[in-house]
Amino acid sequence: MTSNDSTLHARLRNQARMDEHAAGTAPEFALDGSGDELKTYFRVLLDSRWLIIAVALLVTLAGSLYAASRDAVYEANLVVRVEEPSPNATKNVLSDVASLFETKKTTMGEMEVLRSRKVILPAVRKLHLDIIAEPKRFPLPGLVQMLSRGGLPEPGLFGRGGYTWGDERIEVQTFSVPPALLNHRFVITAMDGRQYRVEDGVSGAWTGTVGRTMTVNSPLGAIDLAISRLDGRPGAQFFLVRIPEQTVVNAIQKALGVNEMGKQSGIIEVTLQGDDPVQVSAALNQIAQEYTRQNLAHDTEQAQKSLAILEQRLPLLKRELQASESAYNAFRHQKGTVNLGEEAKLKLQQSAAAAAKRFELLQKRGELQTHLSDQHPAMLALNEQLSAVERELDTSGGAIRALPGLEQQELNLTRDIKVNTDLYAQLSNTAQQLRILAASKLSNVQLIDAAAVPDVPVKPNRPMIVGIASLLGLLLGTAAAFVRRAWRDGVDSAQRIEHSLHAKVVLADIPHSSQQKRLSRQAGLRSDALPLLASVAPGDPAIEALRSFRAALQFAMPHLRNNIVMITGPTAHLGKSFVAANAAAVVAASGKKVLLVDMDLRNGHLHRYFGESHNEGLFEAIAAGDEPGRGIRRQVLENLDFIPTGTGAAGRHEFLMQRDLDLWLRSVSVHYDLVLIDAPPVLAVADPAIIGAHAGAVFLVARAGVSTEEEIAASVSRLNQAGISPEGIIFNDSKLRRQIPDYSYSVAPARIGWTGRTSG
Hints:
Elements: H1 3-23, H2 36-47, H3 49-69, E1 74-82, H4 95-98, H5 107-114, H6 117-127, E2 131-135, H7 141-147, E3 169-176, E4 185-190, E5 195-199, E6 205-209, E7 213-218, E8 221-231, E9 237-242, H8 245-255, E10 257-260, E11 267-274, H9 277-335, H10 342-368, H11 377-401, H12 405-440, E12 445-449, H13 462-488, H14 494-501, E13 506-511, H15 514-523, H16 533-536, H17 541-556, E14 564-568, H18 576-589, E15 594-598, H19 618-624, E16 633-637, E17 640-643, H20 659-669, E18 674-678, H21 687-692, E19 697-703, H22 709-721, E20 728-734
Parallel strand pairs: 13-20, 14-18, 14-19, 15-17, 15-18, 19-20
Antiparallel strand pairs: 1-11, 1-12, 2-9, 3-8, 4-5, 4-9, 5-6, 7-8, 10-11, 16-17
Helix pairs in contact: 3-13, 6-8, 6-9, 9-12, 10-11, 10-12, 17-18
Domain Polysaccharide chain length determinant N-terminal: 38-126
Membrane topology: Multi-pass membrane protein
Pfam families: AAA_31, GNVR, WZC_N, Wzz
């Protein structure tokens, strides 16, 4: 046969392959996907367990540091009762006036008074709450609490920093600074002999003595400092800061909780939170004392003012009563006794009642005018009542004037005596009550429960924070696992590949080999030799899986057009060289004579598995032509020969297109039971399509978590376009499952994509 005839024959053969590929259809072995999603979720969690654990531990550690960095917060509380007058209490002529200074105050108003600056500021000044004096602690209070040993231990962390770890304490009696040094931190360092050193970073450092007041003239103004107590070993440091009073008052107003216990109960609960339990309880008690003191002072002041007004009015009223009695006695002495009728007596009572009411309203208006305007609703209502009483007096006066003259005069005199007598008696009674109220020093506010020193902090709840952080870490770790899976989108199971290709095409499921990972790590990246797992650990699960591949290959070999098998993959770093080298060793161990060929011209490194050099290999053997056995390393393992790429192959990829490659493969294949070729990735270069045309079977290697469904499908499609139908897929580096799927194959397993066969 001539050269032209051979070329024509090759073209017809390739055209036949493409025609069969166009007419063929992929085998339809639909897989049942029920329950796959749930299994996939569990597999994702199982495969990413170390990622989930790492994220959970990291978040838990962050939560623990956060909990340890938070200061303990204590809460003190007290209970106050506000007494309200009984609505059914007996009233006198000035009961409405007395309500202005007695207990007629709403609970809501008292709650606002408790929050007022007038109540809080005196407590701040008395307790020196605008002075912050505290030991220097390590920035993690939780750690300090765990390491605290009580007493006065040696200060500092490894002897440095001046940190305190025990019962160190400082009390400042006087500390005044110029406005420019407000909120400025001073550092106090304990020294021997009750001495201390002060540093402020502005005026340098100076020394003082505990119990004595010192004055320093700094560039910004005079500084007065008196420390009454300093407990700490030499070297222990304390922080001292003077804060503006208004800042402290605002902070207390925000931190102060004032709530009524129950509905309209008049019982008020007051709470305050802070990091110092003793200071919190003391501040709250001082606020309560100041509140009750001011409340009592207000009531007493109001009673005294009203009493002064009444005492001025009583002598005048007494003289009026005496004058009316004298006039009535003179009338009786002159005219004798006049017998008033029932109608006149009734008019007398009405007129006297109206006159008394008018006096009450005038008195009340005088009191209200001291703090209310004429347009106030209370003043307007009072004026309307006064107008009504005036009209009633005019009516009763007209009725009296209609009586006979003698009776009319008698009635007027009697009315004056009655009105003046009633008013004088009632005002005297009211004045006596006011005297008792002013002298009793009793307030309508009663402190039921004083604030006690809290012994357990209300926050932070460190165990809860750590627990929440752990739970959050697990959730974030789980989310990270699914995000990583979605980002990588690598297949994680052989079932997913078969479900994607609608056929049972996975011939081997090679589990991850921790032994191979350890051996590779020991060998190092720069080592010239790589350990062959089939020789070092023949019982490894990965090698057992390759033995399953060997069995499937033996079933398929009789149906192949030749004994040349190519192993490739969609992309690099899938472990195809590992599969090729160990598969060749496994087949050779069964007594078959095998030739392993490294045709990855760009990145071939199979020679490292056998401790050989890549010099004088495939390229030199094909170039020699008449020496097909040239470059072959004989018996690298029993029944296994190997030929590397050769030194001249780099950059000479076009020689794969030459007819000499086909002739060389034919010439060497007759001397072996199996010729196994390690080819470069399908999607990276065109070499696999060229090499696959000479092979009787092509196998794709996919790696768990790395290879994607799109890459596998694209590889199959590219090989199909070249007239090559892969025999199956080797799934590499899969995670060990509790149940390994049982794959069964017929004598002639279905090929992927193209069902046509080539004849040798």
